[in-house]
User: Fold this.
Amino acid sequence: MAGDRPCPTCGQVIPFGQSECPSCSERKGTLWSLERESLVLLTFPALVAFFIVTGFAARAYHSREKHLADEWYARGEANLGAGRPASALDDFRTALIYSRDNPRYQFRLAQALLESGRIEEARVYLQNLWEREPGNGAVNLELGRFSARQGNVDGAQRYFHNAIYGVWESQPDQQRREARLELAEFLLSKGEKAQARAELVALVAELPADAALHVRAGKLFLEAEDFTSALQEFRNALKFNRRKQGALAGAGEAAFRLARYREAKDYLERAMREHPRDPAAASLLKTTHLVLGADPSEPGLTPLERARRVKRAFAQAGARLRKCAAKKGEALDVRKPVTDLQASYARARKLRPRVGERYLLRRPGLGSTVMDFVFNVEEQTAKECGPPAGVDEALMLIGRRRGGPEQ
Assistant:
């Protein structure tokens, strides 16, 4: 065919009007395709190897970072536990370089700042942690302590309650119990006895069978002046440990404050047998014996013994009256009484001729009249000259108990 020419490479005919041999072009395309596929196949393993190496390197880097973070954190824990918060600060900050957003590291850093006296910095860290986890029990506890240090009762109550009802990583019951105990102690330190009693009532409702915890609760109830609850907690402690130190003495004090002196005597005597070097228990026991030995209304007394006790009480009140007047520089033996002490002394002079054993035995009602005078003198002299001691204190306690019988 005119115009056709043979291909110089393969000898095939190149049609007129075409510049390349169709046969050679087809073979060239196939070869290029084969070459490209071979290139891809050869490159893929290299890419896989690259990604594997990169992954190993990244993991090794992060593992090294984690190791360093843990190492510095452990150093910080050791320094903080050893009472070196300043050194712990540097350790925790270094740990955070390798684990910037670790909330546990940030929390311990805040605690180290608190112990170092850097209160405002600690508050910022704690507040940031609280905003991220408002239900975190440990963070709320520290914020509660922070508020307590500032004397902020409302703030302390809010954060302590958040801690009590918050989330804890471990030992939640124990942590919540300790938070409530701390709150009660703080409220008592601020004189908020009613609020402290409310916290203690909630606390004891869930106390485990642990004598030490019941003794601790009993002591706080004593401080809150809830003597009935205090006595119950000390009794609970004795159920779990009959010889638990503090339980017998605490029960004795609670019974004493409730004017249940016979019961107080029993507990205090047992306490002294167990722990004879307890000065507070010894002092209360001494006063208890004085009360029981001076009270004319004690059950089982003969009429003669009642009369003798009234007579002794009257003599004691007279001596107290004279001593108080001397302290204040007041003359008692005056014609016309002006002061309260002088008026009481004038009444004592009128009563004195009738305060004899025989007279009292013939007139049983007179004993009550005389004792009313005695109680009045003890209260009056306590106000004028300060708290009484010894038998005078015992007589004042007897008078105060007269409003309600011993249980």
Q: What stands out?
A: The mean pLDDT is 85.
